[in-house]
Amino acid sequence: MPLGLVALAIGGFGIGLTEFVIMGLLPEVAADFGVTEAAAGWLISGYALAVVVGALGLTAATTRLPRKPVLMGLLVLFIVGNALSALAPTYEAMMTGRVIAALCHGAFFGIGSVVAAGLVAPEKAAGAIAVMFTGLTAANVLGVPFGTFLGQQFGWRSTFWAIAVIGVLALIGIAALVPALHRDGPAPSLRRELGAFRSGQVWLSLLVTVLGFGGMFGAFTYIAYTLTEVSGFDATAVPWLLVLFGAGLVVGNWVGGRLADRSIDGTLLAFIGALVVVLALFAWLASSPIATVVLLVLMGAFGFGTVPGLQSRIMRYAASAPTLASGANIGAFNLGNALGAFSGGVGISAGLGYTSPIWAGAIITLTALAVMAVAALTARRAERADAANAHRADAATSSDSPEREPAASVA
To answer: How far apart are CA 325 and CA 383, in angstroms?
Structure first.
């Protein structure tokens, strides 16, 4: 395995920790700033929306620049944002730090996905992307539970200081281990990158990403409240339950990446369909601690198992200019996060209880499954039409060729 993939995974670990750790600390942050659960949830939604802006804006602005220096610059932005979050005296200042840190997120994973795919053979691209995203899953297995525990013991600000330090380590890793890859083909241009969005499959892929990840985050954003208020767990158990969720992410990411190398659409249909079932069961059985533990693991596995396939799919249909499309897909993941956090907050504010975000997530994910089915069907029809056209062209070429005269016999 190229060491550059390890460096990218280190960066993914720090960025994933920033995104997810606040979910375990949401009650503490809300109490410190004196805001409601729904208002605290906007620290998640605001981050996610800023990721969308950064994924498109920063990726577009850096199209012509060498990818390694861009990745390093993005990590500097990440470090600054987390330091501001740790120092924030008010809710508004905290939101500012979250937004600054978020701006690097989409561009880092978007550009990083292209770099990761370029480090291996084309048939191993989904697996390489999965390795990079292993940092994101490791953040959930190790970082989020430890960060939640750290925040509960020493105050939530200590967690963000720790994340800033991890950002520094990630910056050193990128500088030392990621090679300066040379671009093949014509010089990159924003016009060519934007041209990738003429593909209907690119837009369908982005929509599946928004809805598929939005469904899982509709359930996960307020998971600390669900675990303590519905399932009956003590707050001190939340970090260890998040370890189990993170274990599901790791397994799902690993399996999803390898299956996607065989069949992207088939893997996505299977995983999204399974996630719909898991979310519905979770919402129904959340009052059972045993069922909650099992379904929490499965939610992570099937939810994150879609990530390598979704990222590979967008790069396949934007093959001529994948960087901006790849970044846009990372933005779509986080637009889904914002959608999930918003829908969950609406349900809680309406008095529907702490299982309402899970029900909302199941409905959103069911919509994602329908869109994915349409995308897979139209892609298959297009492939058949292309094959038929190629066959007719070959037949026409053969019929236009002059027939050879039989060789004369020798007496």
So the answer is: 21
